[in-house]
Design a protein that fits this description.
The chain contains two helices and no strands. It is mainly alpha-helical.
Length: 115
């Protein structure tokens, strides 16, 4: 994806530079300035994309590299198909007394650390 973005930024830079030259020759300084701004934007994007490509697969994930760190079970607040935990329903887990972990105090966390 970054290689395509690099090619498009280079394409835009070439055409914007050609536009600057053409509009300066034609005596249209306003249009030349607009093309110069587009050229500056394309050059900035080109620098950023080339930097990300050099940094490696962290910024250009492949099919075997996830773009984020996997959850590994730390996020337990969402239960697919579960009910509303805030109104006392057990939402498919717990013992039906309004607490989802069965400790009777209404907390949804099963550890005593209070996280």
């Amino acid at each position: 994806m970054l290689k395509t973005r690099r090619a498009l930024a280079l394409w835009g830079l070439v055409w914007a530079a050609a536009g600057v030259a053409a509009f300066l020759i034609a005596g249209r300084p306003g249009w030349a300035a607009a093309c110069a701004m587009v050229a500056a934007l394309a050059a900035t994007d080109l620098v950023i994309v080339c930097r990300h490509i050099r940094q490696g697969p962290h910024y250009q994930p492949g099919k075997d590299i996830p773009p984020y760190e996997p959850d590994r079970g730390r996020n337990t607040g969402y239960v697919p198909g579960g009910g509303d935990h805030t109104r006392g329903g057990h939402g498919g887990r717990g013992d039906g007394d309004g607490s989802s972990n069965g400790d009777g105090d209404g907390n949804q966390n099963s550890d005593a650390g209070g996280r």
